[in-house]
Structures are given as structure tokens and as C-alpha cells.
Amino acid sequence: MKAAAVVADILKREGVQFLIGYPVNPVIEAAAEADIRTIIVRQERTGLHMCDAVSRVTSGERIGVFAMQHGPGTENSFGGVAQAYGDSVPIVVLPGGYPRRLLNIPPNFSSFLNYQHVTKWAEQVILADAVPDAMRRAFTQVRNGRPRPVLVELPVDVLREEVADGWTYTPAPRLRTAPDPRAVAEVAAALVAAERPVIYAGQGVHYARAWKQLRELAELLEAPVTTSLQGKSAFPEMHPLSLGSGGRSISKQLHHCLTNADLIFGIGCSFSTTNYGVAMPKGKRIVHATLDPADINKDVRAELALVGDAGLTLDALITEVSDRLRGGPRGRAAAVTQEIKQLKSEWLGEWMPRLTSDATPLSPYRVIWDLLHTVDVANTIITHDAGSPRDQISPFWEPVAPLTYIGWGKTTQLGYGLGLTMGAKLAAPDKLCVNVWGDAAIGFTGMDFETAVRERLPILSVLLNNFSMAIELKVMKVATEKYRSTDIGGNYADFAKALGGWGERVTEPGAIVPAIKRAIDKTREGTPALLEFITEKAVDFSIFP
Ligand SMILES: Cc1ncc(C[n+]2csc(CCOP(=O)(O)OP(=O)(O)O)c2C)c(N)n1
Ligand SMILES: [Mg+2]
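That is the input. Now the predicted structure with magnesium ion docked in place:
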């Protein structure tokens, strides 16, 4: 067998159903021969974002795999891999490499060298016979430890060479680690002793599928729960103990409860310092449970820490905490949930004029509010984009089921949301998959709406067009006044139609809901839809200093 066919055969054994890629890479043809659906995008970055979503919405049970050509394909893919690295997403990247006689000679782009800092594992295969071992290492790395991209560079001449008969391959295991039982007992004691604990859940809960345990621990402790953006939907936000998600903009109840917490328990999170996550107030007692010891004491000092899988950690804590509480309720729930309810109603009351505004150009908040109340939230997977849409949607969207919100933003590449939504639709075809983005964001990856049409990925794309990079207005005053540098333009409803999809431009508040309903019907018929809402240049966010 040729090495390319061996790679495809191994992908099949690893359960890979789609190979997303961009030519030329012999692995693409070999995958098609092996009956793996090949999906060709319009640019590499979007394809990587699709792979990223396949891994996210399946909790890493299925791994997104991307193949691209040596040279330009690998150079152009950097953003997609860097984004997955920044947000800790497990994907397998299979770049072609220059033929071995040119492989490491400048100016030829070496994936092995250049991707070192945005992968957790990168290998260059220089012998066809080494392919099975390299693939085994890559899949073992991607399935275990902290989720992050892995890369196997496969020079084109290696891919065309025969692998000697007798090679074997066993799919890589997924192994879980549990925290030290003594540390678990200490953490349980601290959680039970705390007067006003807050639980902060990250995406580790999604990868461990530990949603039930998270809820059980919160209900045992009668403690409020928030999440990182990446962890959003790990806890149902309709739950009376929910504070909504963290992010750049947050709810009043989250701000209040974090500020007044005496202990913050982070589970499956990194506590990384970022503009797009809620900052932990100074001087708090922090207990940190995470898979990767490299995150302990990194950005916040942890008084106590647990290292291990979020599910096994929560299982162990539930046992220890239950023992200490001796089965009885603590009698705090009523007061805690009443306080949350009160603050939430004050906060929503303050925002209601924006959320239900009848103004034109439309309030982006009105569009989001109407969307939230028109879709079946439990059966929708939604993602934001960089820019104002992220900060407008994340505090107000209330996911009720796990993995129905793809939150991101450790790095914030404009245009990421489209590929995420297409990948989500690929992995979860029965869900309505929606991306909400601005007119700057569509400039980066918009052409891949054509891929959604061609590949029959009927997504719903919600574009907030304010003909501006509104979020930059504050920092580009002079450039805007003198040179109109934040202005942008386009008719994206026409653009969507030109690419073969459904497109509608919406300008009136009363037309929002009917347009959403028509677009959802179109997605049910198999046609991707893009709704272009003409919105004001909003600069107000639910931010607490
Ligand atoms: C690739 C990339 N380059 C630059 C940025 C910085 N950036 C963040 S938001 C933004 C403008 C967003 O404009 P738009 O999407 O139209 O949203 P608006 O704020 O107008 O609602 C820019 C330039 C980024 N996030 N990603
Ligand atoms: Mg804009």
C-alpha cells in the first residue's frame, strides 16, 4: 500500500468520517478511495475551524482532521491552527511537505518547524514505513491530556512511496486521570466550609461530558455557577443557580456574586488572563481543578488544586461533599436563588429597552433577543464572532442543553464563527446551527458560505451589518474622522444569493421574526441562509468595571 492509502486507512480505523481539506495533498484522494467523505473548502482557515467544531461538539469523541498542500497551503493554514491552539481544541492536521530533497531547505516552508508553538505535538515523517507509528503518536496525543492540535507533516514523495507489508495499527486509547484523593478531601472540606462559594466551569466539563455531575455538585453545595465562554452551556442557564456565562460582558448577578464570593472553585478551566473572560476579583480564595498542571498557579494563585479529568474530579468531590453534608440540604438554596433572581430581573429590566427596541437601524440586541425567542434553544447550536456580536450575545443567550453554544475567545480571529457553524452542522445535522457575526467578520471568511451551499451544510448565518467596525470607533476616532477608516460596505444578502444560498436583508423590527422563520424553513429544505440585519453602530455592552 502507498503511504497515502495507509494514512487514509488509519483515519478510518480512528473513526474519522470526514476529511476536510484543500488540494493538493495525496491524502485527500486516498481518503475518498477509502470512502471517507472529503470536503473541500475555499480557504484552509475555514476548514480548520470546521474540524475544530467537529471535535468540540462531540467532546473530542470524534476528531476533526484537516489536510492541505505543502508550501502555500501550510502557510495559509496558520491562523486556523493557532486559533485551535489558543482555545485548546483537539484537531489533527496533516500538511503535505516538500519532497525530502527540498524539505528543510529555505525558503521552503517547514510545517514541522513553524507550527511548533501552536501544536502540542508536531512530527515530520521521512520514511513511508514510519507512517503508522507517527499516526499512532499523533492520535494518542490528541485524545489525551490537554486538548490541542497535533500535526504530522507528510512529504509528498513519502506519501507516494510503498509502506512495507505487515504494518499494523490499533486505534489510540482515550485515558482519564483522577485527582489525588487526599487533595479531593481537602477541597471538599473547603467547599463545604465556604459561606459564599461560586463555581466557575470551563470547557473541561464539556470534554469530560460531566454536565450532570457539575449540576449535582452545585445543587449539593447550593452554590451559584458560572462558566467561561468556552464552558458556556455546561450548566443550564435557566437553572435558578445559574449566573450566566463569563466573558467580556456579563450579567449583573455574575458580577455581584463573584465580587462577594469567599471562594471560587474553577473546574475544567485554565483561569487564563484574557480580555474575553471574566476576571477573578483580587484577593479571593481560589480552588483550581484542571487537567493540565501547567495551568495551576499560572495566572491566579490557587490555594488548593486538583489535577485530573473534570468528570472523575467531580465524581470524587460529590462523594466527599455528600459525606460531609450527611445527606441533608444546607438550607441556603432559597436565599441564594432569590438573590440571583432579584439581580437578574433588575439587570434584564435595565436592558429590556435595548432588547426590545423598535428603533431603526435595528438594535443588535433586539435581533439577538428575537432570535433567542424564535429558535428552539435546546436544539440549536450557536456561536458568536469576534467584535461586538460576541459581547452582545454572550450575556443574553441562555443555553439549556450541553454543547449548544460554541464559546471562544482566548484568541479572537474575525471570521471563525462561520467554519465553526459549518463543522457543527456536519457533526450534528439535526440541530439548527447558527453563527452571529459582524460585517468585518464576514470579510475574512465569507466566501466559504459557498462551501456550505455546495457541501449541503444548511446553516443559518445572522449578520449584523452596521457598515462599520463599530467596536473600534472608540480607538480610531481620528482615523475615522479624517479617512473614514472604520467604514466598510457591502450587500451581504445579495452576496449569499449569488453564492447559491438564501439571503434576505432586514431593516424593520417587525420583520425580524418572520425573516428568521423563513430562513429556518430554508435550512430545513437544505439551503444555507444568511440574514443581513441592518443595525446601528452600537457601543453599549453589559460590562462592569
Ligand atoms: C483577524 C482579526 N483581525 C483583527 C481583529 C480585531 N478586531 C476585533 S473586532 C474588530 C471589528 C469588528 O467589526 P464587526 O465585525 O463589523 O463588528 P461590530 O463591532 O461593527 O459590530 C476588529 C478589527 C480580530 N479580532 N481578528
Ligand atoms: Mg460592523
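The chain is about 40% helix and 15% strand.
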